[in-house]
C-alpha cells in the first residue's frame, strides 16, 4: 500500500499509489498517485490523477484520464475520457468517447459520441454516432449514418 491510501470496502481491492483510494467493489486497483476507483470490478486507475467510477475491466491509463462506467473501456491519453459503453478507447490527449461499442477517438481532441465501430482519427475531428464511420483529417465531422468517411487533405 502507498502512503495515505484508503480502501473503504469490497473484496480484494488495492490502493497502492500515494494518496490513492478504492471505495468498494472487487479486485479494483488504484495504482497511480492521487488515483481513485469508486466501485465495480477489476478496474484500474494507473496514473497520477486517474479515475474509474465503476463498471468492469475498465482502465484509466494516462494522467488525469477517466472512465465512468461500462466494460472493457480504456482512457489512454492525458485528460482523456470514456463515459461508458463497451470496448471503447480514447487514446490521445483530451480525446473522448461518450458511449456505444468498439468506438475509438485516436487523436488529440478527437471525439466519438456513440454508435458502433466508429473512429475519429484526425485532430479535432468528431463522429456523433452511426456505424463504421471514419473521420480522418483535421476538423472532420460525421453526424451519423453507416460507412461514411470524412477526410481533409491540406
TrEMBL record:
InterPro entries: Serralysin-like_metalloprot_C (IPR011049)
Residue segments, region Disordered: 1-43, 66-87
Domain of life: Eukaryota
Residue ranges with Polar residues bias: 15-43
Protein name: Uncharacterized protein
Amino acid at each position: 500500500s502507498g502512503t495515505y491510501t484508503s480502501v473503504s470496502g469490497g473484496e480484494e481491492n488495492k490502493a497502492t499509489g500515494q494518496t490513492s483510494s478504492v471505495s468498494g467493489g472487487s479486485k479494483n486497483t488504484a495504482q497511480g498517485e492521487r488515483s481513485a476507483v469508486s466501485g465495480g470490478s477489476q478496474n484500474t486507475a494507473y496514473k497520477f490523477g486517474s479515475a474509474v467510477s465503476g463498471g468492469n475491466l475498465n482502465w484509466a491509463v494516462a494522467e488525469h484520464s477517466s472512465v465512468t462506467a461500462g466494460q472493457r473501456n480504456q482512457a489512454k491519453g492525458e485528460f482523456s475520457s470514456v463515459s461508458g459503453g463497451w470496448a471503447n478507447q480514447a487514446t490521445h490527449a483530451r480525446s473522448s468517447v461518450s458511449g456505444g461499442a468498439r468506438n475509438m477517438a485516436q487523436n488529440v481532441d478527437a471525439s466519438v459520441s456513440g454508435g458502433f465501430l466508429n473512429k475519429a482519427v484526425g485532430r479535432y475531428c468528431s463522429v456523433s454516432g452511426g456505424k463504421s464511420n471514419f473521420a480522418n483529417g483535421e476538423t472532420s465531422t460525421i453526424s451519423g449514418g453507416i460507412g461514411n468517411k470524412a477526410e481533409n487533405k491540406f
